[in-house]
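Problem statement: downstream parser choked on a complex file, so we are re-checking the raw output for the nicotinamide-adenine-dinucleotide run. The parser issue turned out to be on our end (a line-ending mismatch), but while we're here, posting the original submission so the record is complete.
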Amino acid sequence: MKKISLNLKNKNVIITGGNGFLGSQISEALINEKAKVYIIDIKNPKKRTLAKHFKSDITNEEELKKILKFFKSRKIKIDILINNAAIDYPPSKSKGNNLKLESFSNYFWDKDISVSLKGSYLCTKVFGSYMSKFKKGSIINISSDLGIIAPDQRIYKKSGFVKPVTYSVVKHGIIGLTKYTASYWGKKNIRCNAIAPGGIYNKQDSSFVKNINKLIPLGRMAKKNEYNGLILFLCSDLSSYITGSIIVADGGRTTI
Ligand SMILES: NC(=O)c1ccc[n+]([C@@H]2O[C@H](COP(=O)([O-])OP(=O)(O)OC[C@H]3O[C@@H](n4cnc5c(N)ncnc54)[C@H](O)[C@@H]3O)[C@@H](O)[C@H]2O)c1
């Protein structure tokens, strides 16, 4: 019987938002496995990396088509797409008042839906269509534990922060996109799965950390490298019969 292993050597991976907090972590993990990583991000990388960087906006289909041309003209097959970019609202950095539902800005609504949902849909459409021609590929969408449950606003209370409505909407929407894509391209052997990660510790305010830890059976937030194993698994043939799944990795938060 053929031995199946992780083996991501020379696999071509596109990751959106690959210069951000989680994206740079995932990119490094893939580079360590000798994959070829192509980052699409509107921001420049903070430090030097072996990944190729496209400074581009995922909400702009024309820009994505130009990136596709890069792959096509060099006959580079895309093996894996990771839809990771989203507008996030870390509690310590965002102001509370204008994020309340009662006064939520429609500008933020449009922007959040555009980057996090439309951007993931456009990348799936543009790059996924190309991947489907090769009859093999893996698309991984990054949802959140807040794609499964609603935010518990009590944990932000001390800072006056409110997790905005858009975060719930886009993270639940990503799950719909995942199931749709898995079903739509199943016959083309394109697998599509989502991960629903819990919050990652990133020096947040101590009262927030104390509050969130109480909601998590493992009693702590995730370390920034704790999703690498799951992502690498979903990229590889080790997960060849998994598609349309939403894999929750949240220290148990959504079980209680
Ligand atoms: N950090 C967490 O605790 C956590 C927990 C669960 C899920 N997530 C999810 O993980 C993903 C990454 O989160 P993060 O914490 O790394 O956020 P981040 O803000 O550090 O990174 C997001 C990246 O996306 C890029 N980006 C934003 N708009 C873009 C656009 N229009 N075109 C291209 N790139 C764009 C940003 O420049 C940034 O580099 C998000 O989908 C987030 O919802 C994060």
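For whoever reads this later: The chain has a mean pLDDT of 95.
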